[in-house]
Sequence to fold (734 residues):
Amino acid sequence: MPRFSIIVPSHGVEGRLSQALDSVLAQSLGDVEVIPVCDGPGCLGAHVADRYAERDSRVAPVDSPPSDGLAGARNAGLRAATGAYVLFLDGDDVLAPGALTALDARLAATGDVDVLYAEHERVPWWEGEPANPAAPLLAKAPDGAFAPSEAPQLTGVALPAFSAVWRRSFVTGHRLAFPDGHFTDIGWAGTALLRAERVAVLRSVVVRHLLRRQGSRLNRPGAHHTELLDQVELVLTRAAGQRLSAERSGPLFEQLFATVLRTAAHPRRLPSGRGAFFHRASTLYRRHRPAGYRPPGGSLGVQHRLLAAGSYAAFAALRAANRSVSGAVGSLPYPRGLRTRLRYRRDLRRPLDPNLAVYCAYWGRGYACNPAAIHAKARELAPHIRGVFLVEADQAHTVPEGVEYAVLGSRRAWEVLARAKYLINNANFAEGVVKRPGSVHLQTQHGTPLKTMGLDQSTYPVVAAATGSFTKLLGRVDRWDFNLSANRHSTRMWERAFPGSYEHLEYGYPRNDVYFTATADDVARVRRELGVPEGRTAVLYAPTHRDHRSGFEPGLDLEAFCEAAGEDVVVLLRAHYFYDRGARPCDGRVIDVTAHRSTEDVCLAADALVTDYSSIMFDYAGLDRPIVVYADDWDVYRQTRGVYFDLMAEPPGPVARTPDELARVFRDGSWSGEESAALRARFRERFCEFDDGRAAERVVRRVLLGEPPEALPPVIPLAERVPAPAAAATLVRS
Fold:
């Protein structure tokens, strides 16, 4: 049997599951089985776990429905475990390097023990130093193996389940299981320590526990806090059945009610029912108080006495007196200009307009991308909702006739931002935009992430310097109610890069709907508008932005490429939108389409795409047309910007490293050959999961019309989708 079975529940933290699994599989001690627990076949966690299982036989995923909660997931993992010892690891935590070797050495030194407790680090999301809350408690324990009565302060209830390894024969012999509901660690650890006969401690960090930026689920407001009392009652009832000595029952009682009092004194955790919670806790306190128990001193002791007396009114008054009230409210960068600022504040006090939606794309660069596609579909499906598009003054000409717009920064723009129920953006609204109760913010994103985004940029100095304050970025993320995703890869990366409490909408990108609704006539029309000569092969060249460069550099002699690639090739040059400064003059067979308002139109016109690391490749793949990656500086880009996967190992088509290699790919026809098609098929399967032509409809129905998810159009299987036809009758060159 393996030495350790490591159980890793993944629900809600699928974006970081790969880091947890990597931390286990990279351990110097490899005698393990890893049991990721996923929501079910086809879910996001299963997608990650299955990829690991294909590569490493030690990974054996199991399923547990989300309705069974964390307790059900851990119990499912326990049923599948075969190792001598079991360790629980949350899906967004990691094992410290050398952790399993240290645990193994300690077990060898102490002999078989029922429970081996170890230290763990609580690691902040962003700022602050890691903490080691277990260290003071474990420092007081004996050095070798010991009976729980020799260290009565070690009751288990003050430590999470992942802060120990558990002998599996001990667990199965006593039929231990995680109790249902929230706060399951208390019921599990408290019961286990009542049954244990031999315990030991390891005074080094084994698990690095990542503190969720939005806080522990257990600390959020809600009625689930009443379940804390269920777990407390469970442990105390079992302790009473064992007739614990006063030396053991006293610390257990005090640690349990320290948790209860923290909840009772926290006004936000129980938005309602605080009195009922207090009175039930008081009943438990009196029923299970050990004989001769003396409360602690100070304010905590006063709270104990009030709880024992059932004096909720006095307890509430004490809580209010102890709670510091601060009148300092963080200042917001409100609109410029005193009059506009005063009007905005006034408008924030007016009721929300339930039929007003405000849209913006690329920081006001025009009517474009996902917001434009959603706006257009809303006019069809939700005509009662008035849509206003925000644009910069010099981009007003991009707004189609009949579409209402407002200039960013204007008094009117701030007025609609204050009153709109729906705010839809593919970037972020200004920091001064207030998230009003009842408003709905939809972040649509504007690409599938290959390069690092959000907080993941923090370790890349060039990018981090350009990004600005990550604290402010997180403040903007806090306004999101929904976040749009085109594939499960994106969902995982958004969870890492933009931690928040928003809901993921795996609906596809609305801007890509046109790739399945456009006709051959539409393709021909766009090619005429762009000036593509009839009968030519149009190659779209779309390089991405380089953070380590100050301006746009094509990175390729396009005229020379045309000459070398073949006489029928023309290039459509589309620089990154950072460099959209109007059309550049056409030069022979190179047509600059950077200023064209629609990236989607440009993609429809192209017979093939050449790009480096731009996210345009993920969208273009939906058209099922050839893609060639020109990666002349991949190593530099990967080191300066950071990437989420190795594009060279999983490309959407042929890879060229030099101009000669790129030209040769087109000359010999491999750009559209069988190998190219096979690479593209694998790429599409992974990254074109939800783009099927109905993304905008799903968004409008879910967000603007409030329809339940089960009522939305299902995603059309990839094999059944019919993309818009390319201009060429055939893409195979002799």
Observations:
- Confidence is low (pLDDT under 50) at residues 324-333, 578-585, 729-734.
- The first strand starts at residue 4 and ends at 9.
